[in-house]
Each structure stands twice: as C-alpha cells, then as structure tokens.
Design a protein that fits this description.
Arc Repressor Mutant, subunit A, mainly alpha, 243 residues, two-stranded antiparallel sheet, globular
C-alpha cells in the first residue's frame, strides 16, 4: 500500500457505516490478527484456522496475551462473518479467512490500521501507534496519526458514533493514550493507570529498525508454518499438537 493518502479526509471507502453491536474481546483479537497478518505476512494470507489461532495467541505484540482454543476462534469468525467483517474463502482444500474491516465499518484504510493496532495492543499514545503500525502503514508524522484519531473520536451519531476515545493523562505520563470503542465503552480510570511504553531510551529510528527486523523474522516463521501445514495436508498428517 502506498503512503500518498495522509489526510484524514482522503481515501473514503464505499462501505456501510458502523452501527453493529460491540465486539467481544475474542472477536476483537481475531479481527485484529487478520488485519495484522494481511499486511505483515501477505504471502500467507488469507489465513487458515491454525495460523489464525497461533496469531491470536502470540506472546509478543499482544495486550492482553490470550490462550484461545480453536472452537472459540471459530465461533468468533462466525459472528464476524455475520457482521460482514470477515470473509471465508473457497476454492482451496483448507478454509481460509480474510477481514473486510474498513468496508464494513466505513473508515479509510489509515483509520482501520490504527483501530486494528488498538485492538491488538490496547491503549497507546499517538507516537506509540505511529511506531507500532510502521509495518502496516507508514504515517508521515505523529500529527497525521492524531488527525485520524481525532476524526474517529468526532465521528457523528449518524455514522455510528465515536470509535476511539482519548484517555486522561496517566500519572507521570507525558502524552495521553487512545483506546478503541469497538468493544463498547472504556473504563478510563482503570486503563489510565496501566503502564505505557513511552519514555524508552531508544530513539524512534532505532525502534523502527528493530521493528523491521522483527517483521522479517515473523514473516519467515509464518511462511514456514504455512508450508509445513500444506505439506502435512498433502501427506494426510495431523498438525503438530493435534490428535
């Protein structure tokens, strides 16, 4: 995806306005994982159930860390399909899933990226979001991130209402954090007391370089997992950890 759309008013989709029920935490994790892998491991996307469960249960880049069983992920996928947020692929020996978030919710891709990262990693400052989404979309600057967040916060009732909220400044924090509202109202007093990753001694350029190295490693692992799954299916073997 190119980075020429950098203003909040650009890139409007022709989707439905988001007026669905709040998502469950499991649904948000499944949706966020699909959104992440679509951008970071496109060669393994759309995703199989096994790969999706593994992505949902990652120990890194997830807040909170979850341990979801296949049945819970399948149930969440069924619910998300009924909301038109997930599509099920056909024509393959293995069912694969992809998200339809931006069109279903009615937001530009840049806003979808920010919402996806908030679903995966919890409340973050605009600076943290710019850094954490670097593998998904390269925002020009923090002001650009702020612009899309403010637009999501000011979303009119006719379009379904706000999708993010700016939290009160936590004690000792320099910046306020943002949280998504896709799972319903946020207890600002509870999340504002949670620790933030801001204030790292590393520079933003150093963190971005590390993020890119991590992306390369994760891409390699995902491709190997996908190749192993395809090989097991061709040989009629079960997946590791399955009966």
């Amino acid at each position: 995806m190119t980075s020429d759309l950098q203003t909040p008013s650009a890139g409007r989709p022709r989707g439905h306005d988001f007026q669905h029920r709040p998502l469950s935490p499991v649904e948000a994790r499944v949706l966020g994982t699909l959104m992440e892998k679509a951008r970071t491991v496109p060669d393994s996307y759309p995703m199989t159930l096994n790969a999706l469960v593994t992505g949902c249960n990652q120990k890194s880049s997830r807040d909170p860390v979850m341990n979801l069983a296949d049945a819970l992920v399948l149930e969440a996928l069924d619910e998300l399909r009924s909301l038109h947020m997930v599509l099920e692929g056909s024509g393959s020996r293995v069912t694969r899933y992809e998200h339809n978030f931006a069109r279903a919710v009615g937001v530009p891709e840049q806003s979808a990226v920010l919402l996806g990262m908030l679903m995966l990693r919890g409340p973050q400052t605009a600076g943290e979001l710019r850094l954490n989404t670097e593998r998904w979309y390269k925002f020009l600057d923090i002001a650009s991130v702020d612009g899309f967040l403010e637009e999501l916060q000011d979303r009119s009732a006719e379009k379904g209402g706000p999708l993010v909220v700016k939290l009160p400044r936590a004690p000792g924090a320099r910046e306020q954090r943002w949280a998504h509202l896709l799972c319903g109202p946020v207890d600002a007093s509870a999340v504002s007391a949670a620790p933030s990753t801001q204030g790292s001694a590393a520079t933003e350029d150093e963190l971005i370089a590390l993020t890119r190295r991590l992306a390369t490693l994760e891409n390699t692992v995902a491709l190997l997992q996908d190749q192993l799954q395809n090989l097991n299916e061709q040989l009629g073997l079960s997946q590791p950890g399955q009966p």
